[in-house]
Prior knowledge:
The chain has helices at about 1-20, 30-45, 55-75, 85-110. It is mainly alpha-helical. The chain has 4 helices and no strands. About 85% of the residues lie in helices and about 0% in strands. Helix 2 (about 30-45) packs across helix 3 (about 55-75), helix 2 packs parallel to helix 4 (about 85-110) and helix 3 crosses helix 4. The chain has one domain.
Amino acid sequence: xxxxxxxxxxxxxxxxxxxxxxxxxxxxxxxxxxxxxxxxxxxxxxxxxxxxxxxxxxxxxxxxxxxxxxxxxxxxxxxxxxxxxxxxxxxxxxxxxxxxxxxxxxxxxxxx
Length: 112
């Protein structure tokens, strides 16, 4: 399982780098799509630790699609659409969700 998680992380990071560097590669599309679905999914799944596995996967993937669509909608609404901007926005939102989860867990540890 750790090997699979490591491989998924590498694929996601490569997809983000290919998109941000505007590299013309046949792997850019699939790897970037994987990153755009995996990054928010992992962050949301970390926040939903109490759910059963199937419900957690379903909710986190649905949340990732919602985050991606909201980022795209927002960028289109302000006429600032770009692939690099979308990847950056999704990365920032995913990191903020993970940061909130970490802060919440640290608060629980201190109160125990």
